[in-house]
Amino acid sequence: TAQRFATIEAIKQFDSGGATANVSKQVRDLLEPTLTPATFGSVKATHIISDLLTIAALCAMELRRRRLKATATV
Predict the structure, then answer these.
(1) How much is the pLDDT for 19?
(2) H/E/C letters for each residue in 40-59?
(3) Could you tell me if 33 and 43 lie in one domain?
(4) Is the pTM for the entire model greater than 0.70?
């Protein structure tokens, strides 16, 4: 999340006085409204949910492996 804040701040402080000022301004005007930083709570929730889904997937794969192994030995 800190990286997002830093990226947004860098874009806002970008010097658009060069030769491509018009293009840079258009791109900035297009991108800047979409770069809303996530709250720390939402980032934490996303990571917790991702971890739980990973654990559930590993359990499902292990159960499938055991079931296939039991079927093959019968």
Answers:
(1) 58
(2) HHHHHHHHHHHHHHHHHHHH
(3) no
(4) no
What's the total number of domains in the chain? 2
SS3 71: helix
Q: How many CB atoms lie within 10 A of CB 20?
A: 10
Range of the domain at 73: 39-74
CA 21 centroid distance within chain: 30
Query: Do 55 and 32 share a structural domain?
Result: no
Digit-coded pLDDT (tens) for 15-26:
655 656 676 777
CA pair distance 36, 33, nearest whole angstrom: 7
Q: Which amino acid is at 74?
A: V
What pLDDT band is residue 10 in, cutting at 50, 70 and 90? confident
Distance CA 63, CA 59 (A): 6
